[in-house]
Specification:
The chain has twelve helices and 17 strands. By secondary structure, the protein is an alpha+beta fold. Among the domains are: about 170 residues, Glutaredoxin (3-Layer(aba) Sandwich); about 130 residues, Jelly Rolls (Sandwich), CATH 2.60.120. The strands form four sheets. The chain has a six-stranded mixed beta sheet with strand order 1-5-6-4-3-2, with helices on one face. A five-stranded mixed beta sheet has the order 7-9-14-11-12. α4 crosses α5, α5 crosses α7 and α8 packs across α9. The chain binds calcium ion (4 copies). One calcium ion binds next to loops. One calcium ion binds next to α2.
């Protein structure tokens, strides 16, 4: 297995604090807040509000927004842009999609102007985040229970660290932070990978014309399929919300008549709610996803394997598939999933022999096979896979890409012991390449609540399971 992943993974399990959606924290107006976000003593805090959110900012110290003020009314353009973006995000996320509203912060020592969610501008030079000073959260953390809680959020004062256009970044930040406040109203201690992925997913729903960024694609399952879907945070910065594409895949896949089923994610969050909203028990992220899929007679494992396999066909799989391709190409990256190993066949090389790799839970590898000189046009290739027992959820699929641009795709049915095979076309000059996608689709967790950054704060039962493959010319 790739050493880089093993080290990263091990480090994440050891050093990352429990990944929770809303950690306790102090507001920029609180003298005990960290320097990074603290407002100057006695600074007059300005507020501009929507029906559910108040944007807070100061004119002095390190944290003011840029002073550009096109209409000269004393309110900077950035603040006006944020207020409009929050109003739009509220109307889609809450009114239209039916997500629950953020909780009022009236129990906090400092509720700001009133009980609406407070968003503070501070010079953080990174993506916005939310913290909580809700007494309920403090109490829940102390008793290792989950709870819904109110939050306040912090976003960068000038969004100067972004590559995107300011107007786009304003909208992205508003949609993402509003959703983090919504998520905390379900379960403020829900797995952070899922909260962040949902926030990124919904920004793409609220503002459909918001361009996808290269980072949203490069850190995720297309170019790093061999990382666990719920692998979150340091030491791989940028992976924080990489799972959004899976949520996009699910809503598009479950949709009808070309319209995505965005209500699916709302249902998942209802199942994930701390009060057991949808089902009577407080599920964790992956469990809630699996449960919501099971109500649609789908299983998470099969759907996740299909996701990895269909990422080879972005135009057929995603309504924005062409945009994903263009974005990667513009960033100088080949717009195809990452291939772990490519095997070449010739007159002399007729078999790969057995190869092995240990796969993380909820991850996949792609293996390529290419006919070179001397492989006859009528040649066939026998693909063999030897994974763990079916109880550990191995999955194998393939695509045959022909030289004339056509394609043929299929599954390899695995037996109880995880072995299986399939013979496919492999003619020299006829087939460009065969791709075998092997997925460890296991979402079984143990030792929940032990402080890892994976789902349920636990450990994956089928971690680094051995998978083997072999291909032989017929
Ligand atoms: Ca103005
Ligand atoms: Ca408030
Ligand atoms: Ca800044
Ligand atoms: Ca939960």
């Amino acid at each position: 297995m790739p050493i880089r992943i093993a080290i990263a993974m091990l480090a994440s399990l050891l050093i990352v604090p429990p990944a929770i959606a809303a950690e306790p924290g102090a507001r920029p107006t609180d003298p005990t807040a960290p320097q990074e976000i603290r407002y100057p003593n006695g600074a007059s805090v300005q507020q501009h509000c929507t029906p559910r959110v108040c944007v807070n900012w100061v004119r002095s110290g390190a944290h003011p927004p840029p002073s550009d003020d096109t209409d000269s009314d004393g309110v900077p353009d950035l603040i006006e842009g944020l207020v409009v973006a929050y109003s739009q995000a509220e109307s889609v996320e809450i009114e239209q999609l039916g997500f629950t509203a953020p909780l009022p912060d009236s129990d906090s020592d400092d509720e700001g102007l009133d009980d609406r969610v407070d968003v503070y501008l501070a010079d953080i030079d990174r993506e916005g985040y939310c913290l909580s000073d809700d007494p309920d959260l403090k109490q829940a953390v102390e008793s290792s229970a989950h709870t819904a809680a109110s939050v306040f959020c912090v976003i960068d004062n000038d969004l100067s660290d972004r590559t995107g256009a300011p107007a786009d970044e304003i909208r992205r930040e508003a949609a993402r932070t509003l959703f983090q406040a919504i998520a905390a109203a379900y379960d403020a201690l829900e797995d952070e990978w899922f909260t962040q992925a949902s926030a990124t997913w919904i920004a793409d729903v609220v503002f459909d014309d918001l361009p996808v960024t290269a980072e949203m694609l490069t850190s995720g399952p297309i170019l790093q399929p061999d990382y666990p879907l719920d692998f979150f945070g340091e030491p791989e910065p940028g992976r924080v919300d990489s799972a959004w594409l899976f949520l996009r895949f699910l809503t598009e896949h479950l949709g009808t008549d070309g319209l995505p089923d965005n209500g699916f994610l709302r249902q998942v969050w209802e199942f994930a709610a701390a009060d057991g909203g949808g089902s009577g028990i407080d599920m964790y992220s992956m469990q809630a996803l699996a449960h919501a899929l099971s109500l649609r007679e789908l299983d998470l494992e099969t759907v996740f394997a299909s996701f990895n396999w269909l990422n080879w066909l972005p135009l057929e799989t995603y309504s924005d598939g062409q945009e994903y391709i263009d974005t990667l190409v513009a960033a100088g990256i080949e717009p195809l999933p990452y291939v772990t190993k490519t095997h070449y066949f010739s007159k002399r090389v007729y078999t790969t022999g057995w190869w092995a790799q240990a796969l993380f839970h909820m991850s996949a590898i792609n293996v390529g096979f290419r006919p070179k000189k001397g492989v006859a046009p009528s040649t066939r290739l026998r693909l063999q896979v030897d994974g763990p027992k079916l109880t550990s959820f191995p999955q194998a699929r393939f695509h045959i890409f022909f030289t004339d641009g056509t394609r043929s795709s299929g599954f390899i049915r695995l037996r109880e012991d995880g072995t299986g095979g399939r013979t496919v076309d492999f003619g020299g000059g006829v087939v460009d390449r065969v791709i075998l996608t092997i997925t460890n689709a296991s979402a079984r967790y143990v030792d929940c609540g032990t402080g890892t950054s994976l789902s349920c704060g636990g450990r994956a039962l089928d971690e680094l399971t051995d998978y083997r493959w072999r291909a032989t010319i017929r």
